[in-house]
Design brief:
With about 600 residues, the protein is an alpha/beta fold. The protein folds into 3 domains: about 20-330, ABC transporter transmembrane region fold (Up-down Bundle), CATH 1.20.1560; about 340-430 and about 545-570, P-loop containing nucleotide triphosphate hydrolases (Rossmann fold); about 575-605, no CATH class. It has 20 helices and 12 strands.
Length: about 600
C-alpha cells in the first residue's frame, strides 16, 4: 500500500508570481477594508512617533545635556514617555484589527474552499487523496494567519519605517545618508535571491506535508489490513521515507534562512561602522554635533532593523505564498459535472420513467465502460441489473445520479434529458443505498435525516420502522439519540446497512430507490428483513437494483444482463433461465448445481 502512485501534477507547480497571489488575496480582504485601512493609518502614526524619538534625543543632548540645563530636559523626557505610550496603544489596536481581519479572511477562504470541494466531481476524489485535501483546508489556510497578522503587516510597517527614516537621514546629513543607502542595492539582490530559494524550499515543505498526511490517513484507515497481513514493519519503513523527505525539506528551509540573516547583519554592521568613523570625524572638526550623530546612529539602527525584520518575516511570507499557491490551484480546478446556465428545474414530483438512449461512457479516453446502452424503465417498474464485476452496473448508477457526464447518448427522466436539468433536482428524486454505507459521527437520528431539520422525528421513526431498523435502535441505550463514532464503528455491518436504508426512505424519494448491492454484506436474517421491506417499499416506486447475487432479484419485473458494457439479455428470471445464456450460466454458478467445467460447456453451447 502506497500513496506514491497518486496523481502529482498539482503538487509540482510552476513559477508563481507573488503579485498575482497577493492580488487574489486582497480580493478576500475587500469586505474588511475599513478595518484594514484603519490599521494602516495606525501604522503610519506609529512610524511618525517612532521617528520623533531620535530627534528628541538629539534635542536633549545638544540643547540640555551639553549645556547642563535640566528644566527643559524633564519636558523632553515626559514627551518621550508620552510617545512610547502612544506607540504602545496604536500598535495594540492595529494588531487587534489585523487579527480580526485575518480570522475573517481565513474563515471566508476556508468556507469557499469547502464549498468548492463539495461541488467537485466524483472523478476528482478518485484521484486525490483525502489527506492532501485536508491539508489544504487546515495547514495551508492556517499559514495565512501569520501572513496577515504578523508577516504582511510587519513588512508594510517596515517599508513605512525605511521610507521615513531615509527622509530624516537625508535631512540630518545627506552625505552620511548616501553612505547608508549605497549598500541597499546589494541587500536588494540578496533578498531577491533569498525569496526564490525560500519559495522553492517552502513549496517542497508543503508538498511533503501533504504526502505524509495522505499516507497517514490511508494507513490509519486501513489499519485492520495492515495488522492482518503483518505490514507494520514495511509500512514503518515507508512512513520513515515520507517523514525523512519532510525533514529534508524542513532543513532546507532552516539552512536558507540561517544563511540570509547573518549576511544582512554583517552588511548593516559594516555600514554602521563606516558612519561612526565619518560622523566622528565631522564631530571632531565641529561640522556636526554629538546629539545629531547620536540621532543619526539611532536612525541607522532603525533603518536596518526593518531590513532584518523583513528577513525574519520572509519565511512567513514565503510559507504563506506557497500555501496560497496550492489553495488557489485547488480553487482553479474545474468542478467537473456542472449545470448548464439554462438548466431546468424538475417538478417537485415526477412519475419515474427512466430511459437510456444509446449511452456510451468511459472514465478514461477510449476505454469504454458502457457501449451504446439503451433501455426504458416504466414508472413503478422494478428492474435489476446483473453481470460480472466490471460489466458496468455501478456506472449506470453513477450516470443516472449525474456524478459523471456521458460522452454519447442521452439519459431521460420523465422524458427530460438529465444533462439539461439541475443536478440536485435530479438527485432529490433518487434514494441510494450503497454496499458500503457511510455513517457520520453523530446520533442515530442525525444520520438518518442528515441534519435536515425539515424531516421530523416521526418521519425518521417511520422510515426506521419500515426497514426494520427500529428493532435494534430501540435496544440502544439512548435510542435515536445514541451517538455513533466515526464511520459507525460501534454498529455491525447489518445495522449500518439498515440505517443507510432508513436514511434513503426518510428522504422519501418520490420516484425511485436505487440499491447498489445493498444486501451484499449482511447476514441472512437481516437480508430477509430488508427483502421483506423492499417488497412494500418498491410497490409504488421505480426501482433499480444492482446485485451480484441473483437470488435477491428473482422477483424483479425485469432483469437486464450486462457484459463488458453492453446489454446482452433481458427478461424475467424464468425467461432468462429458459434462454440458457449468460444469465443461466451465472445462475448455475451461484447455485452450485453443476461443476464449473460443466457450466462452461453449457455456456459454450448456449452461445
Amino acid at each position: 500500500m502506497s500513496v506514491s502512485g497518486y496523481r502529482e501534477e498539482d503538487d509540482v507547480i510552476g513559477k508563481a508570481y507573488d503579485s498575482r497571489l497577493v492580488k487574489r488575496l486582497l480580493h478576500y480582504m475587500r469586505p474588511y477594508r475599513g478595518r484594514t485601512i484603519l490599521a494602516v493609518l495606525l501604522l503610519l502614526a506609529t512610524t511618525a512617533l517612532a521617528l520623533s524619538q531620535p530627534l528628541l534625543v538629539q534635542q536633549a543632548i545638544d540643547r540640555d545635556i551639553a549645556k547642563a540645563k535640566t528644566d527643559d530636559l524633564w519636558w523632553i523626557i515626559t514627551l518621550y514617555l508620552l510617545v512610547l505610550a502612544l506607540i504602545f496603544i496604536f500598535r495594540y489596536v492595529q494588531s487587534l484589527l489585523m487579527v480580526i481581519v485575518s480570522q475573517k479572511v481565513m474563515n471566508d477562504l476556508r468556507m469557499q474552499l469547502f464549498r468548492h470541494l463539495q461541488r467537485m466531481s466524483i472523478a476528482f476524489y478518485d484521484s486525490n487523496p483525502v489527506g492532501r485535501l485536508v491539508t489544504r483546508l487546515t495547514n495551508d489556510i492556517a499559514a495565512l494567519n501569520e501572513l496577515l497578522t504578523a508577516g504582511a503587516i510587519t513588512i508594510i510597517a517596515d517599508v513605512f519605517m525605511i521610507a521615513g527614516v531615509a527622509g530624516v537621514l537625508l535631512w540630518i546629513n545627506w552625505k552620511l545618508a548616501l553612505i547608508t543607502f549605497v549598500i541597499m542595492p546589494v541587500l536588494a539582490v540578496i533578498m531577491r535571491w533569498f525569496a526564490v530559494v525560500m519559495r522553492n524550499s517552502f513549496r517542497q515543505q508543503r508538498l511533503h506535508v501533504a504526502r505524509l498526511n495522505a499516507f497517514t490517513a490511508e494507513h490509519i484507515g486501513g489499519m485492520m489490513l495492515v495488522q492482518l497481513f503483518g505490514r507494520q514493519r514495511r509500512d514503518n519503513e515507508e512512513f520513515r521515507e515520507h517523514s525523512g523527505r519532510l525533514l529534508d525539506a524542513n532543513m532546507g528551509v532552516v539552512h536558507s534562512y540561517a544563511m540570509f540573516e547573518p549576511v544582512v547583519a554583517i552588511v548593516s554592521a559594516m555600514t554602521t561602522a563606516i558612519v561612526i568613523v565619518v560622523g566622528g570625524l565631522d564631530v571632531l572638526d565641529e561640522s556636526m554635533t554629538v546629539g545629531r550623530l547620536v540621532a543619526f546612529l539611532m536612525l541607522v539602527a532603525m533603518y536596518y532593523n526593518p531590513v532584518r525584520e523583513i528577513a525574519d518575516r520572509f519565511n512567513i511570507l514565503q510559507s504563506a505564498m506557497a500555501a496560497l499557491e496550492r489553495i488557489f490551484t485547488l480553487l482553479d480546478q474545474p468542478e467537473g459535472v456542472q449545470d448548464a446556465e439554462d438548466a431546468l428545474d424538475l417538478p417537485a414530483r415526477v412519475e419515474g420513467a427512466v430511459e437510456f438512449e444509446g449511452v456510451s461512457f468511459a472514465y478514461t479516453p477510449d476505454t469504454w465502460v458502457l457501449k451504446d446502452v439503451s433501455f426504458r424503465i416504466a414508472p413503478g417498474e422494478r428492474v435489476a441489473f446483473v453481470g460480472a464485476t466490471g460489466a458496468g452496473k455501478t456506472s449506470l448508477i453513477n450516470l443516472l445520479l449525474r456524478f459523471y457526464d456521458i460522452q454519447q447518448g442521452r439519459i431521460l427522466l420523465d422524458g427530460i434529458d438529465i444533462a439539461r436539468a439541475k443536478q440536485q433536482h435530479v438527485r432529490r428524486h433518487i434514494g441510494l443505498v450503497l454496499q458500503d454505507p457511510f455513517i457520520f459521527t453523530g446520533t442515530i437520528e442525525e444520520n438518518i435525516r442528515l441534519r435536515d431539520e425539515t424531516i421530523p422525528l416521526a418521519q425518521v421513526r417511520d422510515a426506521a420502522r419500515l426497514v426494520g431498523a427500529d428493532r435494534f435502535i430501540s435496544e440502544l441505550p439512548d435510542g435515536y439519540q445514541h451517538r455513533l463514532v466515526e464511520r459507525g464503528a460501534n454498529l455491525s455491518t447489518g445495522q449500518k446497512q439498515l440505517l443507510a436504508f432508513a436514511r434513503s426512505v426518510a428522504f422519501d424519494p418520490e420516484v425511485m430507490l436505487v440499491l447498489d448491492e445493498a444486501t451484499a454484506n449482511i447476514d441472512s436474517e437481516t437480508e430477509a428483513l430488508i427483502q421483506e421491506s423492499l417488497e412494500r417499499l418498491t410497490a409504488r416506486r421505480t426501482s433499480i437494483i444492482i446485485a451480484h447475487r441473483l437470488a435477491t432479484v428473482r422477483g424483479a419485473d425485469r432483469i437486464i444482463v450486462l457484459h463488458r458494457g453492453e446489454i446482452v439479455e433481458q427478461g424475467t428470471h424464468d425467461e432468462l433461465l429458459a434462454l440458457r445464456g449468460r444469465y443461466f450460466r451465472l445462475w448455475l454458478l451461484q447455485q452450485r448445481e453443476v461443476p464449473a467445467d460443466a457450466v462452461a460447456k453449457t455456456g459454450d453451447a448456449a452461445s
